[in-house]
Amino acid sequence: MAPGVKGANRTGRPFTGDHAGILLYQSLIKFGFATGTYAAEPDDGVELHDCRIANAVRCAPPANLPEPKEVTTCNRFLAGELQGMPNLRIALALGVLAHAATLKACGIVPSRVKFQHGAVHTLPDGLLLANSYHVSRYNTSTRRLTTAMFEAVMFDIAGRLHRA
C-alpha cells in the first residue's frame, strides 16, 4: 500500500522495521526470492533475487491508510516501476488497494478484475497479477491471512516462474 512510518520511511527498505515485513521477507527467503536472515533492519544482509518491492503510494499516509487521491497521484510512479522491469512476468498485489493500483498502472479499469486471495489473473499484455491479502499485523493477528495461506500464494508464484 504505502511505506509505514516505523518501517520503510525509517529504514529506507519496504516492509523493514514493521510487523508486515516478518512474513513477507521470511517467505521471500523460503521461496528463493531473497537470501539472508531478516532482522527488521536495513543492514541485516537480506538481498532480493529476481524480485522487487514497490508501494502503490510513495508517502506514509495518515492512519497508515492511503486516501484515493494519494493512490491516484502516485499511480504514475507505480506505472513507471512496472514499465521499468521489461522481464516482469508476475506481480504480487498485497491487498485490494495494491491490486487496484496495479491494474490502474497497467491501464486496466480495476473493477474489471476482481481481487480474490490466491487468484492469479492474466492481464492483456501477458503479465500475471497474483493476489494475496496484505501481510499486515491486523490480517495476520486476526488470521485473515495465515502463514500457510501466504506461503501457498508464494509456492504458486515460484512454480509458475520455474515452469517457464
List keywords for this structure.
Uracil-DNA Glycosylase, subunit E; single chain; 5 strands; three-stranded mixed β-sheet; 164 residues; alpha+beta; two-stranded antiparallel sheet
Question: Gist?
Answer:
By secondary structure, the chain is of the alpha+beta class.
Description:
This protein has 164 residues and is of the alpha+beta class. It has helices at 8-11, 20-30, 68-83, 96-105, 137-141, 147-163; strands spanning 34-35, 47-48, 90-94, 120-122, 128-132. It has a three-stranded mixed sheet with strand order 3-5-4. A two-stranded antiparallel sheet has the order 1-2. Helix 3 (68-83) packs across helix 4 (96-105). The relative contact order is 0.15.
Amount of helix:
25-40%
Tell me, briefly, the overall form. globular
CATH superfamily: Uracil-DNA glycosylase-like domain
Query: What string, H for helix and E for strand, traces the elements in order?
Result: HHEEHEHEEHH
Strand segment count: 5
List the domain count as a whole number.
1
**Low-confidence blocks of residues:** none
Helix/strand class? alpha+beta
Major sheet: size, sense and barrel closure?
Answer: 3 strands, mixed
CATH-derived topology: Uracil-DNA Glycosylase, subunit E
Q: Assess the beta-strand content as a share of residues.
A: 5-15%
End-to-end distance: 29 Å
The CATH class label is Alpha Beta
In what order do the strands lie side by side in the largest sheet? 3-5-4
Q: Report Rg.
A: 15 Å
Strand and helix map with partners:
Layout lengths: L7 H4 L8 H11 L3 E2 L11 E2 L19 H16 L6 E5 L1 H10 L14 E3 L5 E5 L4 H5 L5 H17 L1
Parallel strand pairs: 3-5
Antiparallel strand pairs: 1-2, 4-5
Helix pairs in contact: 3-4
